Amino acid sequence: MLYDIIIIGGGIVGLATGLKIKEQKPELKIAILEKENELAKHQTGNNSGVIHSGLYYKPGSLKATNCIAGYHQLIQFCDEENIPYEITGKVVVATQKEQIPILNGIYERGLQNGLNGTRHITLDELKEYEPYCAGVAAIHVPQTGIVDYKQVALAYGEKFKKLGGEIFLEHEVKRTNSLKGYTVVQTNKQHFDTKLIINCGGLYSDKVAQMNQEEELDVKIIPFRGEYYKLKKEREYLVKNLIYPVPDPNFPFLGVHFTRMMKGGVEAGPNAVLAFKREGYKRSDVNLKELSETLAWPGFQKVAAKYWKTGFGEMYRSFSKAAFTKALQELIPDIQESDLVEGGAGVRAQACDRTGGLLDDFSIKENQYAINVLNAPSPAATSSLSIGQTVSELALKRF
Ligand SMILES: Cc1cc2nc3c(=O)[nH]c(=O)nc-3n(C[C@H](O)[C@H](O)[C@H](O)COP(=O)(O)OP(=O)(O)OC[C@H]3O[C@@H](n4cnc5c(N)ncnc54)[C@H](O)[C@@H]3O)c2cc1C
């Protein structure tokens, strides 16, 4: 059977892409192939559930433009499909004087990205927003919200199917062979012939991209696990909504934050430790082949040399609940180790180039047979419909 488009990966980006293409050209024959027995099992199903406003990202970058456009599309989608979400607002809090210039820089970016209403607040106002939070300076961002991204992704999938799209679960793509204008996609179960591949493989997007191109790929996915604690029910009152620290400007992650979750409860996290397996959700998960590939990647070695101090700190906090608690006490001094119970974990797919840069922006690369989404870390869930729109425009130029 010949398909117009095969999308590899049933996470939020693959599903949004399928939906956007089907909405514009329902006559195209499209299938999404997902290796798991359910959709959205990996990054999409294990994240902080924050609807990001577009605060942090370099103006004009793909992250900034897609986050802001995706934010509005996501909210409209949730309204139309009756998916619960809440616009809670968030505070970003400097806990040391040295962080104030960075906080001011983030505020300026917010303004450049058009976030009306984002403002510096006094410490008295901070106490009104978050009574238990301490700091030396803060900003308030009214646009930020919360949602359950798994629910959103499943709704994209349902709508995609209603428009005639097909979804095949438990179909792991093993290899692709392109010849004379079309590609044979071989899964563990069957093969599919297609005119175009769209790779939304998340933690395996580099492996899938390598299948569809001859030259050696110049990026590798480095998996960073983010572990969460949960506040015990009786201490949830310590957090009203969302409390973020000032991020380390040299590190691509936002720092351990407090998040009220749409499905209930308050989470603290995620940290960022190197995962020894791409889908390694536990500290004990190791895949020697994947780990040795990471360690041998020249770009990773440079990243390790650059961030070793931050990396060891994150690793230490991963093993020591006392150290994790101490980091949280910077924002909420009343938090005690006994207030925290272990929560889940997610693994971020962070692309790293050969020369040692962790890719800061989203990355979408095309070749004759495929469109590869090679870097779609946070805020890609918020941005999903806009990324889907961007990819669908590239795809539809070919039909
Ligand atoms: C800890 C954490 C916190 C985050 N917090 C936020 C947040 O608050 N807000 C936000 O906007 N973003 C957040 N993100 C980022 C967001 O979750 C991701 O950017 C987004 O989910 C990426 O979606 P995806 O579809 O690209 O990847 P995924 O959801 O990982 O989907 C990729 C899919 O491809 C499948 N696949 C891989 N290889 C194959 C193959 N060979 N054959 C078939 N299928 C295959 C996988 O099984 C998987 O289902 C967070 C991420 C993490 C990990």
UniProtKB/TrEMBL annotation:
- Select a single GO molecular function from the record's annotations and give it: (S)-2-hydroxyglutarate dehydrogenase activity
Q: Does the keyword Oxidoreductase apply?
A: yes
Q: Keyword annotations for this protein? A: FAD, Flavoprotein, Oxidoreductase
Q: What is this protein's record name?
A: L-2-hydroxyglutarate oxidase
Q: Which NCBIfam families match?
A: PRK11728.1
Q: Which GO terms describe its cellular component?
A: cytoplasm
Q: Which Pfam families match?
A: DAO
Question: What Gene3D superfamilies does the record tag this protein with?
Answer: D-Amino Acid Oxidase, subunit A, domain 2, FAD/NAD(P)-binding domain
NADP is among the record's keywords? no
Q: Which InterPro entries match?
A: FAD-dep_OxRdtase, FAD/NAD-bd_sf
Family membership, please give it.
Belongs to the L2HGDH family.
| Phylogenetic placement of the source organism | Bacteria, Pseudomonadati, Bacteroidota, Cytophagia, Cytophagales
Which cofactors are named for this entry? FAD
State the species of origin.
Belliella buryatensis
UniProt domain FAD dependent oxidoreductase: residue ranges: 4-394
User: From which domain of life does this come?
Assistant: Bacteria
